[in-house]
Amino acid sequence: MAQPAPRTDAEVRPYLESLGLPGVVDLHVHFMPQNMLDKVWAFFDGVGEKGTVPPWTITYRTPEAERVDALRQMGVSAFTTLNYAHRPGMAGWLNDYSARFAATHPDAIHSGTFYPEPGVAEQVAGCLEAGVRVFKVHVQVGGFTPLDPLLEPAWQLIEQAGTPVVIHCGNGPTRGEHTGPGPIRELLARHPRLVLVIAHAGLPEYAEFVALARQYPGVHLDTTMVGTSYMEYSFPLPADYPQAMTDLADRVVLGTDFPNIPYPYAHQIEVLAGWGLGDDWMRKVLWENPRRLVGLDVQS
Q: Does the N-terminal or the C-terminal CB of the chain have fewer CB atoms within 10 Å?
């Protein structure tokens, strides 16, 4: 029986040990070039200025080395870097950064990104050849449809490789021109073997993305900000959501959005444990499922 859920970051590692886990694998962590990260932080600094939602105070606004150390201190044994291109010409240098980061941090999961632009298939092929284990695309920030014809050969390559794509495609926190479950439903109809990790579980369309996960075995849901105190303010979970998470126990993976979160890292784990779905479910979400998804479970 695990000890009570962690309420502080110092309690995360002891909680994991009580579950019998050597660590946790987080599939929704951002490490970005500083100039890009500064722009992301500036965006969040503006959230709440109109008083319609609470202010978004970034908890881990620290130098890169300190952020890496914070994850390690909590027992995060593997984490992504999840850069995302939102205009032409960005993916190349973002992928270069992520490759260098993974080469110098053995606990970083080699991550990549792509964008609908000429040459995207060659770019994705290069990422796969270089050992990228997970991609990230952001439909809302990028302002593109995943059905863009330019992306078709890239999706074919990714589907064939079975490499997961963390895709921010829900209508939260703000609706985009191409967000929502509709385009994803069509993408999966074209490529039913795609492995898609729905960022933020697709909030606020929780039920619609649960339905897609039930229909397509490659669809996973990441827990990023789901059920947290901040997100419940704007996008509260349906009352029956924990039951759906029980049914999809093998297709839910930990995500947190570290470092860009307005509360301690421990809060996400506390929320998940608070659903009362049991220690085995927590072991799957925190360790077994994400390791399997990015191929870490085939290593000694």
A: C
